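Weekly structure sync, notes
Attendees: PL, DS, HV (note-taker this week)

Item 1: Complexin
DS walked through the input record. Source organism listed as Tigriopus californicus. Sequence as pasted into the shared doc:
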Amino acid sequence: MMMLKMMNPFGSVTDSIPGVGGGGGDDDEGESKEEQMEQERLRQEAIKQAERERRDKYKKQEDEREVMRQSIRDKVQAKAMAEQQLNNIKGQVGEKCSIQ
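Item 1 (cont.): predicted structure, written out as tokens:
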């Protein structure tokens, strides 16, 4: 035994350092398996909630943009209809003028 300590003088010291020697155990974490599972469940739930909120936010923005797009479409359509009516009136006036 003494011969092994001479070859590795830090052999007994590393047993007391967690994660290096054989002395430390997994029970030093401070949380039980159930607590870890509960923490993970809460973390996953928080991630899902944040994702839902993000989706709702962007869906609301997209809905607002669609309302704006529709109003632009309506204006363009109204303008096209007005031009068409104006052309029809011009055509009718032109026909009357050319007949006389």
